[in-house]
Amino acid sequence: MQQHQRRLRRSLIKRVCVNCACAGPSEIGSKVGLHIRKTKIKVMSGFLDGIRCGDCECNVDWGERRNTIASVAAGVLFFTGWWIIIDAAVKYPDEGQFHHAYHTCGVIATVAFLMINAVSNGQVRGDSYSEGCIGQTGARVWLFIGFMLAFGSLIASMWILFGGFVVPQKPVVYPGIAIFFQNAFIFFGGLVFKFGRTEDLWQ
Asked: Which one, of 111, 176, 116, lies nearest residue 141 by Cα?
């Protein structure tokens, strides 16, 4: 590195001396320093020019794998929601700490998950090749009922958390938190599975 700098300095001195043969030593020294600073700026400004990200063999075409990624993400969210509620049910089997009727919210959220993704976006918009067995209006009503159940289960889980555990100041609050997170994960998993995928890749 030091030898390279010395060679660079010598070459710059020769160039400056050739261009400024009649200049004094002080002027030559100042011009040499100016040339060195300019050269360093050029090297630093072009530092990232040699890095090519497009030639990497690990590039992934996210457009073609959008459906796969959305499906995996939705599955992970759905699985996490049920895993949390199963953990709470195993940890607190006593009905006094965790009432079994609270599982209704998770069941309704799962039914809403299936209802929302049972109809395609093209069928709701009327762009599909076939109207199916319920038609465009029936698909919209079906989707509306599915979203009603999804939002209702999420709101009911929040009511159970605060009305059944936080406000009464029960010593064990984890079952209420588990119910809320179960329904939240299932709800967001349904949204990701519904709107995260594209139907253009199906055709």
From this structure: 116
